Amino acid sequence: MNTSLNYAYYPGCSSTGTSIEYDMSSRAVCAALDIKLTDVPDWSCCGSTPAHTVDHSLSSALSARNLDQVASMGLDSCITPCPSCLANLKTAKHRMEDEGFRDKVNNLLDKPANTKIETKSVLQILVEDYGIENIRKKVVKPLTGLVVGAYYGCILNRPAELMQFDDREHPMAMDNIMEALGATVVPFPLKVECCGASFGIPRKDVVMRLSGKLLDTAKSIGAMALVTACPLCQMNLDMRQDQINHANGSHHKIPIFYFTQLLGLALGLTEKELGMNKLCVSPRTLLDFMVNEENIKEKAA
Amino acid sequence: MPVLTGKELRIVGFLCNWCSYGGADTAGIGRFNQPTDLRIIKVPCSGRIDPLFVVKALMNGADGVLVSGCHPRDCHYAEGNFYARRRLEIMHNFLPIIGYEPERFEYTWVSASEGQRWQQVVTSFTEQIHKLGPAPKILGPEASDTLSLMQAAL
Amino acid sequence: MKVGVFVCHCGSNIEATVDTAAVAAAAREFPGVVFATDTMYTCSEPGQDEIVNAIKEHNLGGIVVASCTPRMHEQTFRRTVERAGLNKYLFEMANIREHVSWIGKDREANTNKSVDLVRMATEKLLRNRPLYSKKFDINKRVLVIGGGVAGIQAALDCADGGLEVVMVEKTSTIGGKMAKLDKTFPTVDCSSCILGPRMVDVAQHPNITLYAYSEIEEINGYVGNFEIKVKKKATYVNWDSCTGCGICMEKCPSKKATDYFNEGIGKTTAINIPFPQAIPKKAKIDPDFCTKLTKGKCGVCAKVCPSGCIDYEMQDEFVTEKVGAIVTATGYDLFDWSVYGEYGAGRYPDVITGLQYERMLSASGPTGGHIKRPSDGKEPKNIVFIQCVGSRDKSVGRPYCTGFCCMYTAKQAILTKDHLPDSQSYVFYMDIRAVGKLYDEFTRRAMEEYDTKYIRGRVSMIYPKGEKLLVRGADTLMGSQVEVDADLVVLAVGAEASAGASELAEKLRISYDSYGFYMEGHPKLKPVETNTAGVYLAGACQGPKDIPSSVAQGSAAAAKVLGLFSKDQLESDPQVSIVDIKRCIGCGKCIQTCPFGAIKEMEFRGMVKADVIETICQGCGICTSTCPQGAIQLQHSTDNQILSEVNALCQF
Amino acid sequence: MKVININLSYNSDFVTQVEEESGQKLNNCYQCGKCTAGCPYTEEYDISVSQIMRLTQAGQKEQVLQANSLWLCATCESCTARCPNQIDVARIMDVLRHMARKEGYVGTGRVKTFWDSFLSSVKNNGRVFEVGLLVNYISHTGRFWTDIGLGPKVLPKGKIHFKPTEMQGKKEVAKIFMRFKEESAR
After folding, report:
1. Disulfide check for C290: which of A84, A128, C221, C270 has CB 3.0–4.6 Å away?
2. Residues A24, A26, A30, A36: is their CA dihedral positive or negative?
3. Is the interface score ipTM higher than 0.90?
C-alpha cells in the first residue's frame, strides 16, 4: 500500500470488557498493516439495541454525540469493529438527514451535532480500502490445515440499503480473507442467522437454542473453528459454549475466533497481542496443530 | 369560457397519438386523479410539433406547455421523437430571450401503458406552473416582432 | 359549415362529474354551431340515429361528439356520419371521459374543461376538408415470428386458409416451451404427443416456409407491404443435405456443450440436434464448444457425416421476404431466480426450476424420465415445490402474477407421485390461481387423491443440512414457522418478457409495457391487434399465458390476418401529406427527413418540387414541421388546424 | 375463542400512528408469512410476526401491544431483508415496542428490565459497565444470576472489571437521558 490509511476508531463499550480481545487484535492488525487508528476522543455508548427499543430519538442522540466527536477531530468518517455500534451510528446519520427528526434529536443534546459522518466496519475497510490481495502479500504464517467457517451474524450486512456492504444473504468478506490467509474455508450455511443477540442474560434459553444450532451446523460441515466479526456473536458462541453444551446435551469444543485474531496470527503477531488467551474455548490444540501442519508442509517443500 | 379564475392556469399539452395520448387514456381508465388545468391537443407524432406551436401557445396566453411523446427508440414512425426533441431543445433555449421562464415548457416521454407515470407528469408539471404563476403576456407589435424573431431563429 | 355537437352522458360515466347539458348550451354559442344537445349513450343505436337525423334535419356539414377517447369510438362515429352522407373526416371528437370525467371530481372545473375541449374540436372541424382514401395492392403473405405453440397455431391456420406463411424461429427447432414439457394440465396428456404432429404439419405444409435458427434483422414498409430482412445464423451444417441421422452427435468428442433444450440438466455435444422430435431435424454446431472452431483441431463430424454437409467456414446469411402482415409470437422467458440469495442463488444443485423438472420427468429427457437429484443421482423422497418465485414480488421488480405456475406445480406434484409412489410432495403457496375449465378440480385432485401437502405461506430460507436441504417456511393458517427436510426443491419460477422483446418491438414499431410485454390494441376489444396496422400478437409475448390461451390467441391472430387479406386491395389512410406546388421551393428538406422515403423529387415547369407518394406516406407529419415554407401539409393535421386548436384554448 | 367485530374493534388512530412513526404502509402486507418463516424468534413468540402485522393492519391495538413477541424481537432484520413488499417489518416492531412501553405494557418483564438496566448503566457511566449492569439487573429481577457459572471462566481472563472505565463526557450523556425523560413526560 503506497497511500497510508488513516481512520478515527470507535471501540464500543464491550471492547473494554467481554470483547477486549477483538479490540486488541483489531488494533494490532491495523498497526501491522500500517493502518493508523486514532480513538474517538471521550467516546460514549452508541445506545446499542436497548436504546432503539425505547425510542429512536434517544438512540440517535446517544450515537449522534459520538459522530459529533468524530467531526470535532476534523474527520468525516470513522470505523468500528462492532456491528451493533456500526448499525446505530449509520442509522443515526441516515435518520438525521430528516429535518424534523434532527431537531428532535438535537433537543436532547448539549449542542446540535454534526452527524455527516460515514461509519464503516473494520472488516469493510480491510476488504475495500486495504484489499484482500494486499493482505495476501503480507501473510508470513499461513493458517495451514485450518478448516474454518465464517459466521457474520444478522446485522453486519442488513438492512442492505443501510449497510451498503457485501451480500445480505451470502456475505463473503471473511470467507475471502480466511482463504487469503491459507485456511480451508467451508461454506457456512447459516452465515446471517441470529445467534440470540443480547438475550444471553434475560432469556438464556433463546441463546442456547439459536447459538446451539449454529454450533451444530459448524460441526456438521466439519469446521474446526468459526470466525466472527461481532462481540455478541462471539460471546454467545464462545463464553456460553459450555452452557449450550449443558443445555442441549452437546459436546462442542469449537474455538470461536474474531477474524482479526486469525488475521493477526497469519501476519506473524504474537498470541498475546491478539488476546488468544482471552478466549473461553481454548484454541491451544488448534493453534499447535496449525504450526505443526505448516512445518510438515515446509519439510515436504 | 375563461380559465376558472384563481383556480386554474392555462396549460396546453401536445401529445403523440400513439403513446402519451394513450397513456393519458390509461390514466383515465385507471381513475388516476389529476389537476384540471391541462388541455390536450392530439398530434399524430411528436415529430409533427412545430416549435412555433409552443411559442404561439405561450404568446396567446398559455402559462405552460407540455409536450409528451414516445420513449426514445420506441417511436411509431421510427425517428419522429428524435426530430421533435432536437427542434424543441433549440426552441427551449430561446424562451428566456423572449421573456419566458424555461420551466414553462417541458418535454417528456410517456408510453401508452404508463398511466401512473402520466398522472405524476401532469401533477408535477401543473404544480411547477402554479409556482411560476401566470405567464407574461406579449401584446401588439412586440408580439409580431417576437414571432418573426423566433421564426427566423427556428 | 353548419356544425352539430353531441355531448354524451355515457350513462353516469361522464354526467356524474360533468354538466353535459351546460356543455351543450355553451357549445350553441360557438361560431358555426347550429345544433347542440346532450345524449345518454351517443354510441348506442338510438344515439347514432339521433346524429343521422340531426344531419338531415339541420343539414349539418360536420359533427363534434364529446364523449370517450377517439381510440374507443372514432371509427364508430365516422361510419355514422358516412351513413348520413357526410365525408367521414368531417367529424371530430372531444375526449371528455378519459381526459376529464374520470380523472377528477370537481364538477365545475370538469364542465369548464369540457367546454374548452368542445370548442377546440369545433374550431378544428371548421377547417376540416373531405378526404378520400386510395386503394392499393397488398401482398397476401404473412410472417410469423416465433415457433412456439402460439406461432405454430397461427401459422397453420393461415396456411390452411390458403395464405403463404413465412415462419422465423430463433432456436434451431420449433416447439418453444411446450416442446420441453412432459405432460400438460389439467388433462395430463403428453405434451409432445399433441404438439409433435402440429410441428410436423408446419414442416410439411406446402404454404409454410420455415427459417429456424434465424432472427429478424430489419423490418420496413407498412400494412400490406412489409419487407423483412431475416438473418439465418450460421449452423456450420448444410441443412439442404443434412438428413438428421445423428451420427455426428454420436461421434462428437466435445460433450461439454450447454444443453439449452434440457435447461442445463446434463450436457450435450458441440454438434447437436436438440431433441429427437426436433423440427427441422437438422444438426447445428455450437461454436463456443466446437474444438474445430475454437482451436482449429478435431473435424470428426466432417469425417463421419455421410452426406458431407459440415461446413466450418459457414457465415451468417441474409434473406429478404415480402409479406403483408406480421404475427408476433415470441413467447416468454423464465425470470432469473438467482437474485434470491435466501434460496441459494443457484449454489445448491438440488434446487431446480420447474422447467428443469419437466425435462427430468420427460421420457426423452436427460434422465430418461427418472427423477434424480442432480447432486448425487439419488431418488428424492421429500420434494418441496415453492410457488411465486419471481412472481407477485415487488422486491425483485416482478409484482405481477404469472398465472400458470399454480397449475403446472399441481401437475408436477401429481406426476411426481406417479413416478415415485413413495414420495411426498409439499407445495408452499400464497393463493391458488386455478381459474379455467377443470383447473380448480385439478388442483383439488393433487391434494385429495395424490395427498400433496399444500402449505399456505412463503419460504424464507433454504440451506443444506447434511445430504438434505432444510426448507424453512411459514404456514400462515397455523400461524407458525414450519420446516421441511427436502431431498429436492423445485421452484415455480415466473415468466418475464423474452430476451430481446423490446428490440424486436422497436423494429415492429409496436409498444410494450414496462416489463417488456407487448401492448395490445385495446385491453378488451383488440386483444391480438397492436396499434400498428398489420401487426398482430399471439401468446405470451403479450403477457404470461398458458397453452389453451396461447393457442386461442394464435387462431385469433390468424383470423385477423385472413380477414385483412379477404380484400384484394386495402384503402390507404388519406391523412397524408400533400405539397402546395406554388409554395414549394424544392429545398428537399422534407425528402431528407421522411422516415419512409415517401417523398420524391419531381419536375414542374422546369423547377424541382417535392411530391408525396400517397400509399407510402404514413402520416407522421415530420415533413410538415420541417418545411420552411409550410408548403407541405399533413392533411387533417395541418398547421392551420392545430393552430386553430391552440387559439381556441389560448385567447387571453 | 374471542369473536372480533371487525369494524367496531378497528382502531384507526392506532393504525395511523404506526404508519406515521414507522413510515411504512400496512396495507402493503399481503400476509405471505415470509417474515414469520425467517424469524429466528418465532419459537419464543406468543404471536408470530406475520400475525402481528395482520392484527396491526386490522387495528387490534390491545392484542398487539400485549404481545410478548414485541419484547423478544432482537431486530435481526431477517423480516425486513426478505419482505417481498419491501416493508421494514423490524422498524414496525420497534415502533410497536415504543407504544407498548408508553402505554405501560411490560410484556416479557425480564427483557425490558435488562434493557432498562443496560440504559441506566449508560446513563450513569456514559458507557456500559458490564458488571454494574448485571448487579442492577439481578437486583431488579431479584432472580439468582443463572450465569454465575461463567464467573470462574471469565474472571481470570481479565475481561471483567469491577470499576467502570472513566470518561469526562458522562454528564453530557446523563443529560441526554434527562432531557429525553422530560420530553416524553410532555
Report:
1. C270
2. negative
3. no
